[in-house]
Amino acid sequence: MTHSALTSRPRVLVTGAGGPAGSSLLTQLDARRIPVLGVDMAPRPRTDGARILPCPPATAPDFVSALAAICEEYSIDLIIPTVDEELSILAPLRSALLHRARIAVSPTAAVAIAADKWLTHRVADSLGLAVPRSLEGPALTEEGAYWLGFPYVVRPRVARGGRGVRLETTFPPTVPLRDTEMVSAFLPGTEYCAQLYLPLPASGHTATVVVLEKTSLAS
């Protein structure tokens, strides 16, 4: 097996290499001349020639064994997962290396909290951070609905981004609430997302801030 001549650099494996986060990370690591390999359940050719190997999805029973085999074959030093579903599976393995590769993932408890919007809300609230008024879905009463205000937001506790999010304007809600959902006060107005892009070292360029206007639930 032929590897990069940059033996002093770590060999990095990026999962979800076909997605936005994984693809961007491959580009950044390659620009820094760090030997990098991508894996994805549906590999697609890249214009820069970066190699992406097939790997089962996190839900497959052979996901960990397939990842470990790739790490061994390509002498991977560091795994950087970029797929949400992989985090809860890889977090318990962060101290038990796959082959000899370390895994860039938080401890299991932290991953579990970050994956659950209700648990995240509770932790943020306990730390004094500003959070919207919220309740677990099954705990919503008519009094609770008026405390939240109308309309109120219903969202899955575990889901990516805005998937499954809806507005309810009445009590009881038009769709019965499930124990996998939470409800929160609706914050009206336009939502903005600020993104900071840092230049590569010695590029001579300054940092760029881009502010994106996001679609509101009310629209």
TrEMBL record:
Key words of the record: ATP-binding, Nucleotide-binding
Q: Does the keyword ATP-binding apply?
A: yes
Pfam families referenced in this protein's UniProt entry, alphabetically: PylC-like_N (PF21360)
Identify the InterPro entries for this entry. ATP-grasp, PylC_N
Which residue stretches, if any, does this entry annotate as coiled coil?
none
| Segments forming domain ATP-grasp | 121-167
Protein name, per record: ATP-grasp domain-containing protein
**Organism name:** Schaalia turicensis
The opening ranks of the lineage are: Bacteria, Bacillati, Actinomycetota, Actinomycetes, Actinomycetales
